[in-house]
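I hope you will forgive my troubling you with a question about protein structure. The matter concerns a single protein, recorded as an amino acid sequence and a row of backbone structure tokens. Please examine both parts with care and let me know of anything in them that strikes you as inconsistent. Here, with my thanks, is the record as I have it:
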Amino acid sequence: MIVLEDSFTDEEKRGFYKAIYSRRDVRSHFISKPIEENKLSKILHAAHHAPSVGFSQPWNFILIKDQATKKKIKESFDEEKRRSSQVVDEPKKSKYLSFKLEGILESPVNLCVTYDPTKFGPFVIGRSSIPEAGLYSVCCAIQNLWLSARTEGVGLGWVSILSNEILKETLQLPEHVVPVAYLCLGYVNEFADKPDLETAKWLPRLDLKDVVYYEKWEDKENSDWKEIQDLIQTNLD
């Protein structure tokens, strides 16, 4: 049972928000220093304590350090990046191809997070109306993992330019298991002040006021929410 004495101190709150605002999707800057086993265990424990629909805990974590496996995944990345560049016109195509978008070979640990919809049988509380809730649960675990890694000073990058079929074949996943995220983990020589794609001006960061609506879609001026509207405008970034 949670009691008031378990409330976070101001210092703990600052640490929590620091992890959120300084988290980065790391593609470069990895160094060769290995991740300590006890630290990696902490990060995995944090992921495993994520919320999940119906307490189904539908995730699994595949740890990878074998270079041959990494090379196969890197080949898939290279092919998928080349293929996806065909749908982008110049000059964006060249800019896209110039980006460093993964650290598969450079990071000491690769990690595949999967979704198993069969855990605990076909009926999971909360998933009958929204089947995708199982996948959402896995994403919660990934976010926990990401924030824990940042808190421990470990960089993490999510490689989404991959063939899931190649992942399933290479990692020998059962047919029903879905690879959700392929992650690169390792110490880095720096965490960037801003996300790489924001710095490169690929896309801008949207203002919070532009993505918050009140009561209904695209209602931004509801007078019942005036105070929070003013706060969002002034002090939340």
Notes: The chain has a mean pLDDT of 95. Residues 60 and 114 are 5 Å apart (CA to CA). The radius of gyration is 20 Å.
